[in-house]
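Lab notes, practical 5.
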Amino acid sequence: MKKLKLYSLALVLLAGFSFVSCSDDNNDTLSGDETVGGLINSASSAITYALTSSPTFVHTANVSIFQGVVKTPKIEVYKQFTNLAGVKSENVLLKTLTFPTTEQMESTSYTFTYNELIAGLSINGVALPASDSDLTAGEFWTLTYVSTTSEGKTHVNVRSTKVNVACVSDLAGNYSTSTLRPSNNTTYTYALEVFDLVGDGQYNTTYIGNYYGATQTAGTSGNTTQLDAPDAGYTFTDICNNMQMETQNLGNYYTNEVRQKPSQRALSFRNPTTGVIVIHYSIWFTGNTVEREFISTYTPLP
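Output from the prediction step:
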């Protein structure tokens, strides 16, 4: 298996580092790179809460800050629960994180348990259950970040961490990949795709669409394209055989976003009999205004 890539969990919350952009033209040329500084740079995008976990089992999330001229000494983490009907709980403080502001790039991790996630939250006046056996796969918590700067200002960040309630999952391993780009009816294939486990029910792929990383092997058909990023893989979460992708940056390097619409999410699944996985998603171009759709099919290798 390829080396575990924890950095793939980091997604931009505010404009901390600017990423380069992958263009929308037929040559897929790559352009520009600059660092502009900022506040919160990245955080874990999605974490799986596996049903039947101990209420005291410790989950971990990560946050990184680029300390520019304006420092960020404190971040408050808020929690909110959403049930299957879409009804939300209160939005309540979970943790307060502090930073020494002595380094340009500062990272920290924080932990939480089921007991901490449910404390102080209710749906329609009813407290969340003391046992996770009363939860349903597909429900989730949203953790949001409020930063306090050295100027005394507060900022609610546009990105968040999603804690998904899910079944136990075991998809790590080797696959062959066939990815269809419907707009030009081209299929890109990779003989060996590796899913790395990066969290409970969350995985990182090797390739995405027609792209492979600078340190990776080109596809076996379809005229695949190399990125400057060392690794082209994306992260997804297995929610009881429904494959869900949170918005992320292409190769964790470009400003181009990788997204999954609700309609694409509904079509992304694992066949429990054959183990074949199908994931629908889009890569966006031209300032994230032009969509290019892909359908990746992963077949387990013996």
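Observations recorded by the TA: The chain has two domains: 40-166, 168-300. Residues 114-118 form the longest helix (5 residues).
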